[in-house]
Structures are given as C-alpha cells and as structure tokens.
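Q: Sequence in, structure out?
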Amino acid sequence: MACRSACCCGFGPVNEDNARFLMLALLIILYLLCGAAVFSALEHPKEKQAKEKWAQRFEHFSNKYNLSRDDLEKFLRFYEEANVAGIRVDTTRPRWDFTGAFYFVGTVVSTIGFGMTTPATIGGKIFLIFYGLIGCAATILFFNLFLERLITVLAFVLKSCYELQRRRKGVLPHDGRRDPNPEGGEGLAGWKPSVYYVMVILCGAAVIVSCCASAMYSAVEGWSYLDSLYFCFVAFSTIGFGDLVSSQHLRYEDQAAYRLGNFLFILMGVCCIYSLFNVISIVIKQFLNWTLQKLELLLRCPCCPGKGLRPRRNTVMPGHVRARRNISIETDIANESDTDGRRMSGEMISMKDFLAANKVSLAIMQKQLSETANGHPRQSGSCSRQNGFSGGIGALAIMNNRLVETSVDR
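A: Exactly. Output:
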C-alpha cells in the first residue's frame, strides 16, 4: 500500500519533463566544463606568449625614446578610449554616418551584436534599449515564420520524391489518384518526412551558403579562407564576437555589389543556422527521451514495477520499435500517440497548426494569469498539461509538442 504514494526505495515517481530538464542541465554544465578545458589548453599558451612579447616591446620602446612608463601607459589608455569610439590607425569608414548606423542596427535586430560599434551617448544607450526590444522581437518572429515556410517546402519536396520513388517501384499508379494501401504503414497517406532528413538538408544548405560567403570574404576582405569560415559561423549563429567584421574598410571595389552580397549572405546564413538549431534541438530532445527510457529500465524498483518515470509523450527507441513510428515534420492525427492522443515530440507543425497553437497557448496563459491575480488555486495536473509553451522547441513554440494535448483540453 505504501508504494502508491512513494517507492519503497524512498523515491516517488518522477515526471519525465523534470527528469529531462535536469539531465539536459547536467549535460550542458558538463559540456561547458569540457569546452572551457579545451579552449584553455589551446588558447592560454598563445595568450601568455603574446603578453610576454608585448612586455618586451613596451620596455624596448620606453628605453629607446626615453619615455617614462607612466606617460606611455597613459597615452595607450587614451588610444584605447579612441579605439572604442571607432578610431583606428588604419583608414576605416565612419562608424556613425548613415551607412555605418544602418549596419549597426542590422547587427542589433539580428542579435549578432559584433561589438565593434556601440553607442557612447546616454541618449543612444537609452534609445537602444527600446529599439532593440521591439526590433529583436520582430526579427525572431521573422525567423520563426521563415522556418515554418521552409518546413512546408521541404515537406512538399520530400513527399514528392517519396511518391516518385514508389511510382517507379510500381507501388503507386502513375496517375497518382489513389494510394493502394492508404491505411498501411507504407501507404503514402500516412507517410511523413523524417526530421533527420530535414536536419541533413538544412546542414547542407548552411554549408553551401557558408562556403560561398567565405569565398567572397576571402577575396574582398583579404582574410584566409579558414578565417572567413570562422567569421561565417560566428555571424550566422548570431554569436558575434567582433574580432572579424565585414564591410569595415573605407573603400571597396564594386562597393555597392559587395555590400548587397554581404547583406544577402548574412540574411540567408542566419535563417539557415537558426532553422538548423531548432531541428538539432529536436534531435537532442529525442536523445534525452531515449536515455531516460534506458535509465528507467535500469533503475526501476523491482517491488514497484508500475513506478518510475512517467512519460508524457513518445520517445525515440532503437530497432523495430523505432521503425514503426518515424519522427516527421508534418502534422497528422494518424501519427499521434496510441495511448493518449498526443503528438510525437519530434514532429514539426504546419502554419495552420502553428497559429492555432499560439492562440491556444495565449488563452491558457491569460487564464492562468487571471486565476493567479484573483487568488484562485490552479490544479497542478491540468496546468502542466495545458501550458502550451512548456513543451515547445524554438521561440514562439514553432516545434510545440503539445499542440494536440492543449487542443483536446480546450
């Protein structure tokens, strides 16, 4: 009887969402520690060498021109201030003319933020807060809508290829009017393109755009091809370190064409990498689901066979189980879970479902806020089930895994 409320080992049943969250947090911390160790081993010797070399040059220059260290350090601090304001030894274009300011606001709303240009006045800093708040939100919405349309196009192309392949095998008639096996696992009506295919296509598109852009930057900016590839990833992923920044010289050959090409490459690259990140996040989530299932089998208490992790959606499983249910990018009621009618966690939704998901989620959030403000308690079970944002992948729940669940509850 005691096992109904808690396991005899001292642990109650664990919700899969919480377990996934904790595991992902631990993996991210481990990933950060490993990354810090690798970068420290690679970059720290170079930093130490550069510091010793600078100390030797500083001492040599001070002795050669009979300058005191204090005066020379003060002069260098003045140059650092000028450097922050955009003053360089080499000839560069003005940072705050209209063209430079337009380039700056582009880095703001795209969340790249190279950092080579920053507002220095109080008015500019205050205006940036409000400007970036609206601009970044609008740009993220643009990326989400771009992703939704890209998924629609990829789903149509992949389905057409699949239909053509089945026609060549003689499974489908050449007129394509009827599916001879509409209810079977191999039928065209129940088929959906895999999210892994989408990931490979997006990865290939990102590589092609990066390689083409790197060729342009290497020729125009004078960077090495490897540095150009490094800049493309830093810019397209909106990391934006600012150590390499394009279109900063005063003059270029065919300057108008280069600036147009620079704008288009950055726009396409950011869209491709953003979409790729969203799809990779689905794959990571599936890996966590599969890992949690394996851990549940290993750690399940023998006296409480029904306890353990409480799955809230399907997980990716290897072998014959995985072959029965393919992770896809379109929505279809036929591929929902057999147990509770929920959508698979690896599926991506259409534009119609995307709009419906956000309407449902907004209504639920408004209801919860109203209940909280009026002091009415919320039921924890229904709250966790109806919160449409809690299971989403990507901003504004582009990959919202609980669309069916919230729609049924409503």
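The chain has a mean pLDDT of 75.
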